[in-house]
Amino acid sequence: MCRESYPSRFLHEEFISTYATICPEVPIKFSNKEDAKKVCLAMLQFLKIQDRQYRLGCSLILLKREVVDDMERKRAALLVRHAVVLQKTVRSCLAKISLSRKRNSRHNLQAILKAQSILRRGVAQSKYIKMLGVVEEVKKRMSVQVGESNQPPIPEPEPEVPEPIQEVPMPIAIAEILDEQASSDPVMLTEECREPKKTEPEQEPELEEDLPLIFPELKVWEPIPEQEQVQPLCIRVQVRASGVTEALLFDAERLAIGFRKAAFIQEHKSFLHSYPDTFNGPSLLKWLCEHAGRALFGSAAITERNQQLSRSVARVLAQKLLAVGVYRQVKGNTAKPFEDTAALFRFREDEKNPSLLNGRSIWFKAARDPLYVVSELLYKMLCLRVDYPEKNFKGSEDLALFAAAATELQIVNINELPRVHLLAFYLNSYNLMVLHIHAFLGSVDGTDFSGQKVRSKHEYQYMIAAYNYTLAEIEERLFSRILRANCPKNSEEAKAPEPRVHFALSMGCASSPRIRIYQPETIDEELQQAAIEYLTEFAAEHRMPRNQKVPEIVLPKIFDTYKDDFGATKQEVLAFYASFVHPPRLREKLTKIAKSNNFVLKYAKFDWTVRINKVCQQYDYDNQGANQIKQAPPQKKIGNSG
Fold this sequence. Notes:
Elements lengths: L7 E4 H8 L13 H14 L7 E3 L3 E4 L1 H86 L19 H11 L33 E7 L13 E8 L2 E8 H10 L4 E5 L2 E8 H17 L6 H20 L3 E5 L12 E4 L22 H18 L9 H10 L12 H23 L11 H6 L3 E3 L2 E3 L1 H9 L1 H5 L37 H15 L14 E4 L2 H4 L1 H4 L3 H9 L5 H13 L3 E4 L8 H5 L6 H9 L11
Parallel strand pairs: 13-14
Antiparallel strand pairs: 1-3, 2-3, 4-5, 5-6, 7-8, 8-10, 9-10, 11-12
């Protein structure tokens, strides 16, 4: 009934206003109902609608549903086309306006840069002209002094000895004139510049025609270990003027102690945060300026010229103390921290929970041999653990003294160590860090360490040779896993350098190897002993079920965690394990199973229970253990190459 009837009904005026847009050629002009009816009829004829699809009455027009749907589609398509054109026009106008603004801003920026370049060039030219005048004036003074010295002496009464300040050497003369002309880069003077030298006379520096270059430099004094083992770490402020180099040494330890006694350290608050035991950069700079002024000029440090030079020296001292780690910046601007009043610093000794275990203080003396230092520290820690097995060292004085002694590792030189010495150094450093971490956390035997294993390997650090090492980074140095990952899997380069190292690295837990002090001369035998000791100790967990077609072999968890270090396949892993198993009959049986490749490997659970006393006790080999070492097949010895 709906299809046969005319469900859509419109008034003539309503039909014309709605669908006039799709009939652009029909004139829309009417003044009465008759004219409106004629316009509707013309629109229907323009749209080519059949007579049976509509009925036109005196005031209404009746349409079938398909006719109305067709007209609505045409009307919607027409409106979409007009809307797209309108949006395109508006967007084009907006893009043109944005492009015009960007062009204007670019032109303005180019104009500003050009003006700045012109001003800077003018300022640089004026400074250069002034410096040329300085050089000419210095030449005149020197020529006058030389001319007076060449004249024959006139017999007169012996004049009074002039003060040292009146006889101004060349660097001070240049500094005075630069200061009078408001030079932006003051010269740092030394103690040798204030008094005439009593040593042998040196050749006077030749004056160059160009501008003399005076560069203040800062270097750390490196004493000779054999001769000056107790010399403190000093900061040298070096001055180079026309080929003459002079320097003044500042004791870094005394500077730090003196500033701490000046009572500038206090609690600072910023918004909702509190920073205890901190000081700001300007207070440090002011104190160093006064100290440098007294060291450089004595009682004459109060003059404005000398204060400007002292501030330059103080800025260099503050930057170097920050660089060597006497204190660290807590907050504030890092570009110019000592001029920013909001920048705060804290001494290493005042850190509450430091992740750098040996960074609470700075080693100010000459460092000894690195292998000797780490061996001595590990021996001290082992003695503390063995002598006081039940003591909690967290926050104790013994741990603080040990951390102070461990700061010597900060400046040891490991760059020239041979490969074998470096291997022993990293092994001892790893075990030393593990024991230090347990002491710092207050670990006692019987507690679960599984919640701290990730943090211990990746967060706590040791500063060694001016670089912060974590346990994970030391493992990377020993096994080079990142480099091996890029090599073909079955190639020689993809194999671990020394898999037996795993039996020498301890985490202080029940399933960890014992700790020993490794020496480069006997490290091959010691690694062999460590491997046999570890695999013999956990031999009770290795079983081969009988009456099964496929043998089941249970290995320690370490073979699963680091499976790539022991071999590329399960055959290689089992063959490596079998090389350390005793008695020989069991070793031969496991080797035969490994060659058949008909077995299943399973792994025991790693026990993360803390057992510090167990891993710190020295392993005493009995006759049976010594025979096991002799019967074990020889491993590839460690050489100095590769």
